[in-house]
Amino acid sequence: MIKKLHQMGVKSTHMYMAGIASIGLSFATWLMSKNTEQAGLDRADRWGIFIGEWAPTFMAMGLALRMEETHRDLEEPGMGMFEQAEAGRAPTRAGI
Predict the structure, then answer these.
(1) Residue 43, Cβ density class (10 Å: 0-12 exposed, 13-18 middle, ≥19 buried)
(2) Are 58 and 19 spatial neighbours (Cβ–Cβ below 8 Å)?
(3) S-S: 54 plus which of 22, 25, 31, 84, CB 3.0-4.6 Å?
(4) What is the DSSP letter of 91?
(5) CB–CB of 68/80 below 8 Å?
(6) What is the DSSP string of 7-76?
(7) What is the pLDDT of residues 8-29, one digit of tens each?
(8) By the 8 A CB rule, do 41 and 59 touch?
(9) Residue 37 — left, alpha, or beta (φ > 0 → left; ψ -120 to 50 → alpha)?
(10) DSSP designation for 3
């Protein structure tokens, strides 16, 4: 999945920005729910937590994409870092 995202042009910075936006959106939905709905603070907390849980996923995907971006010097061309790990070969970091 990470290799496919990388091939589609999704960059790690896109995922990092999505994670940061998720944190801001989490606060905004909590505040809007708290101030506009009559359901009370519990519902506002649930909205904020629901959207806030997206941030770690976006950050983790950003890290995985960053690893894919920086590990282009692999032993087998066309094989991403994660495919090599599944095949039992550790990725190399040539030139370091």
Answers:
(1) middle
(2) yes
(3) 22
(4) -
(5) yes
(6) HTT--HHHHHHHHHHHHHHHHHHHHHHHHH-SS-HHHHHHHHHHHHTHHHHHHHHHHHHHHHHH----SS
(7) 888 999 999 999 999 999 888 8
(8) no
(9) beta
(10) H
